[in-house]
## 1
Amino acid sequence: MANIFLIGATGGVGIRLVPDLIARGHAVTGLHRKPEQAEDLRAAGAMPVEADLMEISASDLEMMVQGSDAVVFSAGAAGSGLDRTTAIDGDGPVKLIEAARKTGVKRVYLVSVFPDAGRSRERRDGFEHYMAEKKRADAALAGSELDYVIIRPGTLQSEAGDGRVRAGHATPYGNVARGNVAAFIAELIDTPLIRREIFELTDGDVPVAEAVACLKRD
Ligand SMILES: NC(=O)c1ccc[n+]([C@@H]2O[C@H](COP(=O)([O-])OP(=O)(O)OC[C@H]3O[C@@H](n4cnc5c(N)ncnc54)[C@H](OP(=O)(O)O)[C@@H]3O)[C@@H](O)[C@H]2O)c1
C-alpha cells in the first residue's frame, strides 16, 4: 500500500485513476480546486484537498505532498488561455519538483503530451505554447534527481478503454482512451523499478500489465 497524491484528480484521467489506485489498495489524496468536487472524491474513496494551482506556491505544495510515496501530476489548463497554460502545465510541475525535493518524495509521474500532437494541424499560438510548456515541465523533471516517469499520451478520448495499449520510448502517434492512460499509470506505480523514463502511449493490442512489464530494463 502506498500513499499517492494526485494533482488533477477531477480531470478525465484523474477521475479514472482514483478508483484504479484504490482498487490496488493504495491511499489516494486528490487535489481539487472547486469545493463541490470534495464530496465526489470522498465518495470515490480519496481524501480531497482543495487548492488552486494558480494560487499555491511550491511551499504550499510541500505541505500537501509531505508523506506521499508518489505524486501524479495530471492537471492541465485545457486550452483556457496562455497564462493559465504557463501557470498550470508549465509552472505546476516545476513547483511540484521543488516540493518533492524538499519533502523527500522520490517518485513523480507526470502526464505530458505526445510530441507529434501538433502534426497535420493548422498552427495555433495557444497550442504551440501548450506544447512548449509541457516540454519545459518534462525537461525540469528529467533534469531532476527524482524517480520520475513522464507519460506522453496521444490524443485523449473520453472512454474507459479496453485495457490494451501500445507503449514505448518511440511509438506511432494515435488516440488513447483516458481509462487506458489511468490504467497505465496505476500499473507503473505498482512497478517502481521503472523509473527515470519517458514513454509514449496510445491505444494498442497489448494488455496494460504486459505492456508495462515489457518496459522494465534488465
Ligand atoms: N486533451 C488531449 O488530447 C491531451 C493529450 C495528451 C496529454 N494531455 C494532458 O493530459 C493531462 C490529463 O488530461 P485530462 O483530459 O485528464 O485533463 P482535464 O480533464 O482537462 O483535467 C484537468 C485537471 O486539471 C485540473 N485543474 C485545472 N486547472 C487547475 C487549477 N488551477 N488548480 C488545480 N487543478 C486544476 C482540473 O480541475 P477541474 O476539474 O476543477 O477543472 C482537472 O482535474 C493534462 O495534463 C493534459 O494536458 C491531453
Note: The chain has one domain: 3-214.
## 2
Amino acid sequence: MNNSLYEKDKCTNSDHVATPRWVLENIYSLIKVESFDNIWLPFNNYDSEFKLKASELDLRYKATHIFDDLGSDFFTTEPPCKCDLMISNPPFSKQNEIIERSFYLIEQKSIKSFALLLPLSTLETEKRATMFQEYNDKLSILIFKKRIKFLGHATSFNRGCCWICYNIPALQEKRIQWV
Ligand SMILES: C[S@@+](CC[C@H](N)C(=O)[O-])C[C@H]1O[C@@H](n2cnc3c(N)ncnc32)[C@H](O)[C@@H]1O
C-alpha cells in the first residue's frame, strides 16, 4: 500500500473527499448489491466506506485506487474478471473522461453495469448530455433530495449529487428517482 502518498493526497487533493456511510447504505440497498457477484470499487482505498461496508456485507469485491500497491489508475486498470457491477465516487474533476471510459468498458463487456456518484451538474454540458442520451436505454438517475456533506481532511463541503447508473436491474422499473 502506498500509504504515505495516499495520506498526502488526502491532505492536498481537492478531489479526495470521503463519501459518508449513509450514502453507501442507501445505494447498496436500492440496487440490491447482494445480487451482484463480482463488484469493482475503482477509486476506493482501504479507508473508504464503499469498501468497509462491502466487507461487512461479505460481498465479493475488488477495491482499487491510484495509490494502492499497484498504482491502479482507473484509465488503464482492467476490471476484475466477470465484473457485473462497478460502483464508486470518482474524482469530480475528471468526470468527463470517467463517464466516457465507463461506457467504453460497457461496450467492451468488461463490466455489465455501473453506478457513479457525481455532482448534479453532471447533467449539464452538451458533451455529457450526448453521452447519457446515447445510453438512455438502460440509464437510471437517482437524485439526492438533500446535499451530501463530503468529508475532506481539513474541511468539508456540501454538494447536490446524483447517481448515474447503467443497466442495474433493480432500477429499471423506475429510472428516475429522488432519494
Ligand atoms: C472522491 S475520492 C474518493 C475517496 C474515498 N475513496 C472515499 O471512499 O470516499 C476519489 C479518489 O480517486 C482518486 N483518484 C484520482 N484519479 C484516479 C485515477 N485515475 N485512478 C484511480 N483513482 C484515482 C483520488 O486520489 C481520490 O482519492
Note: Strands lie at 39-41, 61-63, 85-88, 114-119, 139-143, 148-151, 156-159, 161-166, 176-178.
